[in-house]
Design a protein that fits this description.
Number of strands: 2
Strand order of the largest sheet: 1-2
Structural class: mainly alpha
CATH architecture: Up-down Bundle
CATH class: Mainly Alpha
Helix content: 55-70%
Order of helices and strands: EEHHHHHH
Distance between the termini: 114 Å
CATH superfamily: Multidrug efflux transporter AcrB transmembrane domain
Largest sheet: 2 strands, antiparallel
Number of helices: 6
């Protein structure tokens, strides 16, 4: 068998700029990758989407899909949102079975959900982007606030069952749970402050979690100590007046 060089039949040369033809789901695709520097993933993709939408008109049959880390992040957010919704539903069900009062259960759940506003507000004020770790912490904050609120309401109900009046029962519940709540909130804030400030090696990775925890406790503590007792006093004051008139 005689061997013949390829150069005898054609000229071989390297042409720069040629792209590799790839297919995904039986469709031709072009993959572009990028590396971020001093930008968070969410805001960078939003700016990129706006720029491409304004400056890159696509012919019919073409579309843009954002995958990679961004697609994974969005999928995690959707799953965590479903978990948060399911957790809220289960917590409300437990509260209704525990207290046997719709309005009181709703008050406890409302106060706990307002802690989410504290987490989001702290992230917005500090300019820290929300990520999976901070989203997970939001779910945790709801559970912690619900737990503290349940102890407060339970102490109030126990005092009422012993024959205490409305004002004394509310004051007793607040005074009894004041120190544990302050210790929990202050301990968490002090422990997470270095992470929130980004001090130390690797602290910036957990900075969103720390900022969200601090914001949730700062907003949630006044709600537990002021708003929830005032709400309980208002609801049961009206009920006591109706029972007295009857």
């Amino acid at each position: 068998m005689q061997l013949t060089l390829l150069a005898s039949f054609c000229a071989v040369k390297v042409v720069p700029g040629e792209i590799e033809q790839r297919r995904e789901n039986l469709q031709s695709c072009i993959v572009l990758t990028a590396r971020l520097e001093n930008r968070d993933l969410g805001s960078a993709v939003v700016d990129l989407q706006q720029a491409l939408h304004a400056q890159l008109p696509l012919p019919p049959g073409y579309r843009l899909d954002f995958g990679g880390a961004y697609a994974g992040q969005q999928q995690s957010f959707r799953e965590l949102a479903r978990i948060l919704g399911l957790a809220i539903l289960l917590v409300f069900t437990v509260l209704v079975f525990l207290f046997r009062e719709w309005r009181l259960s709703f008050a406890v759940l409302f106060v706990s959900l307002m802690g989410i506003c504290g987490c989001l507000l702290a992230l917005w004020l500090t300019g820290v982007p929300i990520n999976v770790s901070s989203y997970t912490d939001i779910i945790m904050i709801v559970g912690i606030l619900v737990e503290n609120a349940i102890f407060t309401v339970w102490q109030y109900k126990m005092n009422r069952r012993r024959g205490g009046n409305l004002e004394d029962a509310v004051d007793y519940a607040i005074a009894l749970r004041l120190r544990p709540k302050l210790m929990t909130a202050s301990g968490a804030v002090i422990a997470l402050m270095p992470l929130a400030l980004g001090l130390g090696v690797g602290a910036q990775m957990q900075q969103p979690l720390a900022v969200a925890v601090i914001g949730g406790f700062v907003v949630g503590l006044p709600l537990l100590l002021v708003v929830l007792p005032a709400w309980m006093r208002k609801m049961h004051w009206n009920r006591d007046e109706m029972e007295t008139d009857a």
